[in-house]
Amino acid sequence: MDKSSDSGALTHEVARDPRRVHWMELFFDLVFVAFVGQLARGIHGDPGWAEFGTYVLLFFPAWWAWVNIVSVVNLLPGLSSRALGIAMLAAMAAASVMAAAAPGAFGERAWAFSLANAAIRVVLLVLWLYQHRGNSVETPWRIWIYNGGTAVLWFIAAFLPLHVAVVLWATAIVVEVGMMVVSARLWPDRGIGGINIEHASERLGLFVIIVLGESIFTIVTEVSDDWGPGPGLVGALGFLIVAFLGWAFFQYGTGTITAGLERLQARSDFAGILQTTLFLPFLLVLGVTAIAGSIATAIPAPYEHLPLGSGISLGGGLALFYGCNAIVSLRYGQPLRAVLPWAVPTVVIAVLLIPVSAVVPGAVVLVLAAIVLLLVTAYVEIQRRRRRGPAPAAAPPAPLSR
């Protein structure tokens, strides 16, 4: 046997399949879920407008960094596994600092949050320049502004008073979002127009899996800390609610993502692609984490009514989740008559749970929420079976040969 050929086979790097999500991308996602978990602690209990605002304002920069990483990897099919791994590890290091600094990002840790955001944009700058080099000979001024310029803003903000730093944070985000939208409209062939649909669909689905898993982890941790029949009941109801959310997304949502994105791409609806892959999933994840925070608040006190902030988290979170799914379904081309019958009642009832949660025990509110999700799931299942029609009759068995 030729041993040299064996060693060559062992040292040869396996090519990355650009249609599939790489393991290092999933590894990177775990840090962002840790970031979400850190921020979500701030909306447990009875959050007010300040707590909700802090959660959204700190989460969006992290989300935007995540979608930028997803986008550039999607648009770099020739990136090797080794280069991807190095980029993901560098981005993970920056995201880890963001996660650790998040609880005090509007206080004494603002400098660390700023520097981490600057670092992750340097990683993005390198990746986007690499992507540009293989696709254009023009001067990449847009990339230098998009990530280089905003990285400078985040870096400078680390050394300024908080009230000035926050203005620079907001400016950096507005510049990036604005340039992304304008680029998708004016130069789609250099970016969003070349999106790999299979990779984008799988990437979003896997991220939602991790977010739902973090919700289950939160529920299990709370039940473990407050062991007893009441907390156990609320924990079981919370698990059921998260399970219904997962069923809705993975049984109905993921099956339409690929086909929906392909339809948007075929008719050059790049605004629709941006909305359904970058912006609406942000609201969906906000909804899931808000629901998990409300459940965690109910577990230690199952027979008391929820604080107003937790009631808003539960009802508003459910409304966000199903409302976003309805909008995405419509953008993907599903008819109104198929979407509105389940979307409108679910969103309306979810909002009505907010005042109800102020007068009935938390366990009862979760029972009502679980019943609503059960009914909407049953309705969608029945409609799907009707559209499929009756199963064809089985063919008679073939006669045995003699």
Characterization of the model:
The protein is mainly α and 402 residues long. It has 2 domains: 17-194, no CATH class; 196-386, no CATH class. Helices cover 77% and strands 0% of the residues. Helix 6 packs antiparallel against helix 7, helix 9 (229-266) packs parallel to helix 11 and helix 11 (308-331) runs antiparallel to helix 12. The longest helix is centred in the middle third of the chain and has 38 residues, at 229-266. The model is unreliable at 1-14 and 391-402 (pLDDT under 50).
Order of secondary-structure elements: HHHHHHHHHHHHH
From the helix content, strand content and strand pairing, which structural class follows? mainly alpha
Question: What is the mean pLDDT?
Answer: 83
Number of helices: 13
How much β-strand is present in the residues?
under 5%
In total, how many beta strands?
Answer: 0
- Low-confidence runs of at least 5 consecutive residues: 1-14, 391-402
Please report the distance between the alpha carbons of the first and last residues: 50 Å
Helix content: over 70%
Number of domains: 2
Major sheet summary line: none
Gyration radius, rounded = 24 Å
Shape: globular
Short characterization:
The protein is an all-alpha fold. It has helices at 3-11, 23-40, 49-74, 81-101, 110-133, 141-157, 162-186, 197-225, 229-266, 270-298, 308-331, 336-357, 362-388.
Overview features:
402 residues; single chain; mainly alpha; 0% strand; 2 domains; disordered C terminus
